[in-house]
Amino acid sequence: MAVVHQSCVGYVAEPFASLVAGYPGDDVYPQADFRTEWGPVFHRGRLDGSARVLVLGQDPATHESISRRILVGEAGQRVQGLLAKVGVHTAYVMVNVYLYSVFGQAAGSRHVKNEAIAEYRHRWLDALLVGTDVTAVLALGDLAAKAYERWARTQPDAAAALHVAAIRHPTYAEGSARASGRPLAETTAAQLANWNEHLDDLAAHVAAEGPTDLTPYAAGWGPTDLAPIPEVDLPAGAPGWWRDVAAWATRQGDDKQTKRATISVVVPKGARTWPAL
To answer: How far apart are CA 232 and CA 5, in angstroms?
Structure first.
C-alpha cells in the first residue's frame, strides 16, 4: 500500500489568503536590519480553527528560510517537545514577531516599537486569537513577550481570556553562554528551570489532545525533550529529514555579507538512505 502523506494546505482561506497577498517588504523591514532577500516566513501549524495554543517566536533562521515554515530547527524541536509534555501534538499555531530573519540580534530590539511591523503582526494575531478556540499563548523570549503585550492592549477583551506563558527563548542557553561566558551547562539548567515554572499552569489552561507528561525537565536536555516536526506542518513534498532533530542548514562564508547570502543545505548522514555506488 502506498504511503499517504500529509502536508500543510497553505494560505487558501481568509483572512490568511489576503494577509500573505499583502505582506510588507523592505519598505517596512529595512534591509540593514532584516534579511528580506530570503523572503517572509509566515507561520507553522493550524489555520483551520483547530489550534488551542498560539506560539509566538522571534524570527526565522536558516532552516526556516528553506522550509518556508517557522520554528523547524533545533529551537522548534525544543518547543515541539514542550508542547508534547502538555499533550498538544498538532493543535497549535505558530507565528513570529518578525516576518524576516534578523541581521544581527540588536536589530530585533531596535524595531520593538516599529508601528508598521506591529500593524501587520496585529492582523495575524487578531485572526488567530479573537473569537477563536485558542486558550493559551506561549511567548518565546523578551521580544515575543513585548509584542504580545502590545497586541493585548489593542484587544483587551480577547487577551483577558488567554493564559500567557512568557518563557525563555528555546535558544536562550546558547545565547546567554556566549554573551556572558558562563558555562553552557549552567545556562541550560537556568533555561529549563524557567520552563519548569510554567509547565503546570500551561497544562491547566490547554485542552490536551493526548497523554501528558508533566515530569519536570532535568538540568540538561534529555533524549525525549526534543520532538520532530509533524509532516502535516510542512509544504507538500517536503523531505522527511527537514523535520528531524539533526541540523541540515547552515550559513557559510568568510565575511558577513557572504554568510548573509549563502545557506548551505546538506542531507544529514542518517537520512542518506540511497545505495552506495
So the answer is: 8
214 assigned to some structural domain? yes
Return the CA Rg of the chain.
Answer: 18
Closest CA to 174 of 164, 183, 165, 161: 183
Determine how many CB atoms are found less than 10 A away from the CB of residue 216.
12
Among the listed residues 230, 209, 214, the one whose alpha carbon sits nearest the alpha carbon of residue 52? 209
Cα distance between residue 19 and residue 79, in whole Å: 25
Q: What is the pTM of this model?
A: 0.95
C-alpha cell at 191: 533555561
- 259 located within any domain: no
State the pLDDT at residue 58.
Answer: 96
> Per the structure block, which three cell numbers stand in for 260?
548573509
How many whole angstroms separate alpha carbon 258 and alpha carbon 217?
A: 39
**For 34-48, how does the pLDDT look when each residue is reduced to its tens digit (9 = 90+)?**
999 999 999 999 999
Q: How confident is the model at residue 1 (pLDDT cuts 50, 70, 90)?
A: low
Q: For 159-277, where are the E strands, in sequence order? A: 163-167, 249-251, 263-265
Strand 92-96 vs strand 44-45: parallel, antiparallel, or unpaired? Answer: antiparallel
Residue spans of alpha helices (H) in 210-276: 256-261
Give the count of domains, the chain: 1
How many Å apart are CA 265 and CA 67, to the nearest integer?
11
CA–centroid distance for 126 within its chain: 18
Residue 111 domain boundaries: 16-246
Specify the CATH number for the domain of residue 149. 3.40.470.10
Task: Evaluate whether residue 265 is within a structural domain.
Answer: no
Q: At what angle do helices 142-154 and 115-129 cross, to 10 degrees?
A: 70
> Is residue 254, in this structure, part of any structural domain at all?
no
Distance from C-alpha of 128 to C-alpha of 107, rounded to nearest angstrom: 26
